[in-house]
Amino acid sequence: MAAAASPTPTKALPPLRVAITGGAGQIAYSLVFMIARGGVFGDRAVDLRLLDIEAASDKLRAVGMELQDVASPFVLRCTCTTDPLEAFMDADVALLVGARPRGPGMLRKDLLAANAGIFKAQGAVLDEVASRDCKVVVVGNPANTNALLCMRSAPSLPKRNFTALTRLDQNRTAGMLAAKIGVPVSMIRNAVIWGNHSATQVPMVTFATVEEGRAVETVAARLGEGGERWVSEELVPGVQQRGKEVIAARGASSAASAASAICDHIRDWVMGSDGRVVSMAVSSDGNPFGVREGLIFSFPVVIEAGGAWRFASGFTIDEATRSAIEATQSELLEEREAALAATA
Ligand SMILES: NC(=O)c1ccc[n+]([C@@H]2O[C@H](COP(=O)([O-])OP(=O)(O)OC[C@H]3O[C@@H](n4cnc5c(N)ncnc54)[C@H](O)[C@@H]3O)[C@@H](O)[C@H]2O)c1
Ligand SMILES: O=C(O)C[C@H](O)C(=O)O
User: Using a 6 Å cutoff on CB, does residue 140 contact ligand 1?
Assistant: First the structure.
């Protein structure tokens, strides 16, 4: 039997210029190689630029060596650099993963200040040299507030092009639901995340469904008696605390699952979500859900092929969810004030 042909990149389109910060870090060590397998950008090849700081330059160089050794037809070029200008020049996609980790004795507000400075500076460079349609995904924590600072220092780029990653939280929610119900996770639709990528996030499964071909059932019906209680007492806190649980178990934060979620996020953004509702933290300006403007907030969105996203319809918010959304909104408002004060 003949072996299946390996996927090959198109020659009809130029490679996408993809910048990844934190190139020597844990997440990048999975992410770069997932991208190299092809498919994340359809059949487009990539011109990768991996950015890290001087102290990590040897490790970064090693990632470059390993990437060359993968011999991927999808990676036309890979530049390892410590210069943000070189990394972001004409970038079509910027995956901002690199951030300062929390050190011993460091308070959350110290971390917020250190990282806000990094993302403010990177926003200014993107503003100067990136493609005018550069799609920006912020992963480094606190991701929503870092994305806001980045967006504010890039006024010549569209606000709609700045996002933060909450797809990992959505995937965690879908994964836990699928395990509980006993179906493949691909059957779970419309489980979404509101707000901050933090313990105040609001996983919502009110409109979640289990879809098998044309058969559609609500998750509530599949969970049956006791389902509502399981959602509020186990699923929601389970998703909110999953990052902490992984850190406690492996001594480092989620990396492979985060990298996979980044691929899901950017693939759906570049290629469209095919009618599916997905969670992305985006600018809250003009949202129809009553969330305060001026934040980067996770919402259910639908993405057209080509990248235009819109807020999803049909997600009405009940009283309990409204009060949880207000709590995550308050946290984001506080983070915004602290980050702006620290970088003024
Ligand atoms: N949003 C999410 O769902 C999610 C999930 C997991 C992790 N995270 C966050 O992602 C970030 C990265 O995680 P990781 O496990 O890869 O961390 P890591 O510490 O392994 O790697 C971070 C890398 O960023 C680099 N870096 C620091 N400052 C930089 C700068 N100014 N420019 C470029 N690179 C810089 C570091 O040198 C390091 O190589 C962390 O902030 C983590 O909390 C977010
Ligand atoms: O790095 C963290 O604090 C946790 C991470 O954001 C995660 O959700 O796994």
Answer: yes
Q: How far apart are CA 325 and CA 194, in angstroms?
A: 7
Complex ipTM > 0.95: yes
Mark whether 265 is an active-site residue.
no
Q: Which residue, 128, 170, 164, 127, is CA-closest to 145? A: 164
Q: Tell me how far apart the alpha carbons of residues 92 and 313 are, in angstroms, rounded to a whole number.
A: 29
Q: Which CATH architecture has domain 16-164?
A: 3-Layer(aba) Sandwich (3.40)
Indicate where the chain has its CATH 3.90.110.10 domain(s): 167-342
Instruction: Read off the pTM.
Output: 0.97
pLDDT tens, position by position, 177-232: 999 999 999 999 999 999 999 999 999 999 999 999 899 999 999 999 999 999 99
Find the distance separating the first CA and the last CA of the chain, reported in whole Å.
Answer: 65
Give yes or no for residue 140 CB within 6 A of ligand 2. no
The CATH fold assigned to 167-342 is L-2-Hydroxyisocaproate Dehydrogenase; Chain A, domain 2 (3.90.110)
**Residue 143 Cα: closest atom of ligand 2:** 6
Q: Is 171 in the pocket of ligand 2 (CB under 6 A)?
A: no
Distance 308 CA to ligand 2 centre (A): 28
Contacts of 216 (CB under 8 A, 6+ apart): 209, 210
For a ligand 2 pocket test, name from 141, 241, 245 the mutation site with the most ligand atoms within 8 angstroms of its C-beta: 141
Q: What is the pLDDT of residues 86-141, one digit of tens each?
A: 999 999 999 999 998 776 677 677 788 889 999 999 999 999 999 999 999 999 99
What confidence score (pLDDT) does residue 5 get? Answer: 60
